[in-house]
Amino acid sequence: MFRYRRYRVFVAFAFIAVFALYKFSNSGPSWREAASNAAAGFKSGAENAPQVDTKPRPVVAHETKSPKLDIAAAYSQQPLQTPPPLKTPPPRSSARPVVTEKQQKPTIPTPIWPQPPVNPNPLDHSLTVSTSIEAIHWTKLPEHFPVPSKSLIKLPSGKPKPMPKIQFKFKPEDAATKADRLSKLDSIRGVFKKSWSGYRKHAWLHDELRPVSGNYRDPFANWGATLVDALDTLWIMGLKDEFEEAAKAVDSIDFSTTASRADIPLFETTIRYLGGLVAAYDLSGKKYKNLLDKAVELAEILISAFDTPNRMPETYYYWRPQFASQRHRASPRVVLAEIGSLSMEFTRLAQLTGEHKYYDAIARITDHLEEFQNNTRLPGMWPTYLDASGCGKVYVDLPPQEPLRAPEGLLEDDFDDTALPIPTEVLSLEGKKHVPLNLPDPIVLSPNGSPPKPKGSIVPGRTEKDMIRDWNGDPLEKRQLDVDLTEPLKLAQDADKTSSAKATMPTPPECVPQGFVSSSDYGREEFTLGGMSDSTYEYLPKEYLLLGGQVEKYRTMYEQSMDVVKEHLIFRPMLPNEDDILFCGKLNVPSNTDDTKVGDLDAENAHLTCFAGGMFGMGAKLFDRPEDLEIAKKLTEGCVWSYSMTPSGIMPESFEAAPCENTKECTWNETAYWEILDPRSEYRLKNYRDQLKVYNEQLASASSWYDAQLATMTAHPSADVVFKAQATQTSIYADTLDKRQLADQEGDLDIAVRPSPSIANSQNRESVMGGEPEEGEGPPTKVQPLLNIEEVAPQPSLTLPAFPMLYSPHPPLNHKHYVQNRIQEERLPKGVTRIGARNYILRPEAIESVWYMYRITGDSHWREAGWRMFLAINEHTSTLYGNSAIDDVTKTSPQLNDEMESFWLAETLKYFYLLFEEENVLSLDDWVLNTEAHPFKRPT
What we know:
three-stranded antiparallel sheet; 27 helices; globular
């Protein structure tokens, strides 16, 4: 049977659809007319602009006719006209205006634009990138604190002193040794050429190459740091064509501006750029004058950072004119290496140009270091941070405070204090006057022991009216803070004198001039040869060499500092094979553990500290300190061992070891080593026992409470109640047979409350047995139990109480398992107690000392060690475009970090190459290398 109600919606929809088809099928002429009008308007072109109809168009129904429309323009051969160009809208008032040089705020650094995520196309350097913002350029400004020409510290011009030979006198090599050496030399040169080619192709004139992605980054002002830094390496390796190209490209570097940062890091710029340009000019026989010109151009910018009251430089120079034109001071907290490692580059530039101002700038720093050296917390060494501002604290005595004046009219003679109510004469709550009690007269003791004055006596110099009385109306004795009314003019005169003295007091000075001082007056200070200090000590013997021994203070400062280093910082690590090597740690002063010690030693060996072996070796030969040569060998051996201890064969940035009691004897003690790895084993076990004791107490308390809660709960109903069923005759019907079969599954409660047969028989059987049920009719309602019957009443809930939540302490690992787990999880080589930094960023300091040791001792052992280091580094850092820093040297397959700092080409590969180059190339008796391995010619 068709049910209309279910399909009435579909019927309505079908009716609307049929009506729509009929309606729109008769609208053809109207559509044709509209199309013709549209075509006519389109033909008019420029005469009549097309009008846009904003009315909604009707829905187009399907037609059975041809879709060809009667539109003349649709079949015309006339070409379509190009619409007129859109006019550029005027700029909105909220648009950012063009910033000129005068409008540029010096305190807001130029944002560093994000680098493209993909490999950029090679740039056409003949084209300049246009920008709407004009670049800001540094300009030479008048100095605020110029040094008179008569006060300049002149560059020593005397004849250099005779110097001891530093380099070993090598003998000629045999053919087999030469062939092996040349083969290794070619391998090192090949690695350099790959890195240089990657830089040339993907990062030319930028600071650094990203060797994994083939991209670049510019941490050093985007002045081509790798290009300038690697100039002398190109020359040393005989890559003269590449050197020519790079030397010409230096001319395109504009040191007067940069878009990558608002400041110039003085230290990094000096050692990489200035040192690289001067060394390349020196090394190439002074043939490329443009290199020296660019060095002078850069030096003029850097020397402006010294324009401070005490001529100490701003280590981060903000170069923009509006900021640079202001008066500035050096920072009260500068890094030692950043201010103490500028001497070699400026000295060599002064020697090449004859400009004394370059030497004057760094000589003043040396004078301050010399003065401060024996006034530190560890005399002989300098802390990693110091105050170079030259401005001491000013303590000014405050003028005497003016005397207090009484308010005007308060103490005049016509003031009648009798009008004031006595404090005790106040109104009570009922509005009546409160009458005070008669109290005895107070006992007054005079200072000299004389009897008290009688009542009513008047103090001399005061009238009856202006007396200050006590609560009984008696005049009080004159006290210290009472105002003497007999001398009003004297008080006014004193106040006038005080005001006059205050007005004539001279203005305190802005600061007290001082030299270098500590940046931390109360906290601990760090003394180290490692990071933030290293090159300051390194430059002392090298500057002595560069000046031809004519400034003796450099030797004195070096020897004093090295004596302290040997006493407090150098230690022998406890190792399983009892290797006789040395590490140079750092000392924190004052000591927090023992008042009898100067400081606490951090038994650390850092990659940056590995330069110390070469420095000790050079100082030993230069200043005739033979005991230092043995220290130099053992320090260098310590860094070689640090390379061999890891699975990758590369030394981590820093790690710690167990120091021995002395450097002479050091027996391996595994028990002591384990104690260092797990110094809290006893405390951990004791803490567990204490926690377990507390837990047991809590458990006993919770159990007692739980038992009490169970006891207070209502018990189950007793089983004594028996329901007696009486047998009654039951009528059997055909439709109740199944229900009887299910009777066994009913509960006792349902049986107890089942209605009697008489009640059931009284129901209408016709309504429950036959016929179709009526709408809304259902099964009979279940009879509820009688709640007033005790036996059948619902029982209380038998849910158990929640047991309190307790946390049992976790049993700790015993001492043995803890140590073994830590060694395994941290991948600690035996003897190493902690690895502070696991990465390697292609650092050169270890191979630097290996090269110095080979040139000083002539022992081929150092070449063998250096070759193992080279193979390990190249294996784990090699990429498609160069070599990359890695994340963790304790892994067998470290992850590449996609960074290749400029010192990879300037230092690391240069030292590897020089290790296998002929010994007369860059002889230590003719050249001296700065901290970036840039060689400067020693004066003769």
